[in-house]
Fold this protein.
Amino acid sequence: MTQPEAVRAEVEAMLALVRDRYGDRLAPDELDAVRTAVEGLVQAARALRAVRLDNSSEPAQPFAAYRAEP
Amino acid sequence: MSADGLVFTPVRRLAELVRERRLSPVTLAETFLERLERLGSRYNAVVTVTRERALEQARRAEGEIAAGRYRGPLHGIPYGAKDLLATSGGIPTTWGAALFKDRVLGFDATAVRKLEEAGAVLCAKLAMVELAGGMGYRQPNASFTGPGVNPWSRDAWSGGSSSGSGSAVSAGLVPFAIGSETWGSILSPAGNCGVTGLRPTYGRVSRHGAMALCWTLDKLGPLARTADDCGLVLEAIAGCDPADPTTVDRPFRHEPAPAADRRFRFGVLAGVTDGCEPAVRENFEGSLEVLRRVGTVETVTLPDLPYDDITRTILGAEAASAFEDLIESGAIRGLTAPEDRYTPYARDAILAKDYVKALRLRSVMAREADRVLAPLDALVAPGRAAEAPPLTAEVRSAIRGAARDVMGAVGNGAGLPAVAVPNGFGPRGLPTSLQFMGRAWEEGRVLAAAAAYQARTDWHERHADDLE
């Protein structure tokens, strides 16, 4: 599968998910706009995946174990 | 001082007059309340004028000052708050959305409470793009109060998303305002309206009581006439808050003005003006000439990373979760901008793995940005790539991927402070702006740099003359 085909396939798979969940609420022109938005999100995700990170590269997040006092 | 002079006077000067009892806080509040009531609707800048609360606070301030209990430079000074900050006393908090136009939360956001403790006078809840623009709007008409109108041209946009905060300061309806920024929502209206806007470091100002669009990107900050005024306001609202666990206990003390002989070291990202309108580029070059009088300017580079994609993915995923109820229930059908009623459905396409990857890359981005910024006082860049768009035009937004904004993606993604100041005008007579971005917790440095620029220019002293 070429890269454009792979992108198209991913967009269609994601759009199928969105259509399955919300399709009954969306007019055809709205679905077209959602498709454009999904294409943007897929392109962004693929740009993120293209960057290789070491196993030790942790997410920037502030989780801390919680314990109510005392 | 004439009423016209008074309403465009910086907070610093108003505070002197109030402290010396040459200006009554009640008179000051009445002056701005009258303008908010008379001119607010012209700019679609106001949701609620809080007259009763304002006069009560102003009378209290007047009594305290008369009794020798002066609280500091915001004592008796009117202000407006973006309408995503909770307010008590039966004042609605609408988030700019028709869905919530009558909603009353019944408590004060921490920032509002801190301003009350500083003696400031809440005169209005200010208009904003619905849900702070988090639903993917593409046009200025994306608020139940109408499109934010720019005081410099009633055909142009003031936003967004802190549209009313920008236009109200610009039009002399309040001396300062509180806005919020997830990506661009303080710097953009400040730039469009020709005022000064400060985006503090993430964690500097408590978000308690503020609408959550994106928990790890949302920041609250001031818009005012000068960098000095922004520093005064930041000092009042900054600080650790147990109600917001992301706030950090790092004291902020605003220094009034940098020493006249202070030298700065500025960086400019290679290619930062690519995609900017010619007038924006020209004004930026002019600004660099001014900055070279107070320091050095060097070109710097960041490693090649998908900065816009990192911040956009985080914003999209967290906004989808923050507003899950509205989206899943279909309540977004009640929003003003047609595209806000369906675009959020697309965000179900963001995979958890990709969101976590964005968070991992965010750590890399933050380290790289700090490495570049460490030897500098600030990175400088155009505040916006273009003049404010016409009210009927599509809004170019990096959040949707319709434009590139590396400074915004890195600055917001890494939680870095930035201040935008006016630096000229474009061919349509609308302001352009210059931004200074610094290392985390270095608001003092970026404000000092901005103050040095404003000491050598007069763009911040100008205001539109079509205001009566």
